[in-house]
Amino acid sequence: MTPLYFTTAGGVSIAFGDSIQRGVDTWAWVMGNNLKAEADTTANAGIADHYLNATNQMNLMVDSWADDRRDIDADARAGLKSEILDGHGRGADGTQKYLTDTTS
User: Fold this and answer.
1) Cα–Cα distances in Å, from 46 out to 6, 43, 54?
2) Whose CA is closest to 89, among 55, 45, 40, 53?
3) pLDDT in tens, 8-26
4) What does the DSSP 8-state code read for residue 18?
5) Tell me: the pLDDT tens digits for 47-93?
6) Is the pTM of this model over 0.90?
7) How far from each other are the two terminal CA atoms of the chain, in whole angstroms?
C-alpha cells in the first residue's frame, strides 16, 4: 500500500496511511473471529438440542413399540436402543468423512 503523508506545521512529513490500514485489518480480523465464534456457539447448541430431541424421540418410539410385545424385555430394549445409537454414530461418522473429503 502507498502510505499517506501528513505534513506538520514544522515541515515534518509523517506517514500514517499504512498504520491506519493495519488497524483496519486487525479490527476486521478480530471482528471476523468474534462473528465465527458466535456462529459456532449457536450452531453447537442447535446441534446438541437436535441430537437430544432425536434421542428422546427414539427412546419413546422403541418403548411404545416394545410395550405391546411380551418377547421384548428391559434388556432387549436397552440393547436395541444401544444398537440404534451406534448405527446413528457410524452413519454420522461416515457422512462426515464424505463431506470433508476434498480429494474426490
Assistant:
1) 51, 5, 12
2) 55
3) 777 777 766 677 778 889 9
4) H
5) 889 888 988 998 899 998 888 888 888 888 899 999 998 888 888 88
6) no
7) 39
Q: If DSSP states are collapsed to H, E and C, what string results for 4-61?
A: CEEECCCCCEEECHHHHHHHHHHHHHHHHHHHHHHHHHHHHHHHHHHHHHHHHHHHHH
How does DSSP classify residue 4? P
What integer pLDDT is reported at residue 102 of this predicted model? Answer: 59
- CA 78 – CA 73 distance, rounded (Å): 9
Residues 38, 40, 41, 47, Cα dihedral to 10°? 150
Q: Which residues pair with 13 in a beta bridge?
A: 7
Q: Which residue has the cell 434388556?
A: 75
Distance of CA 49 to the CA centre of its chain: 13
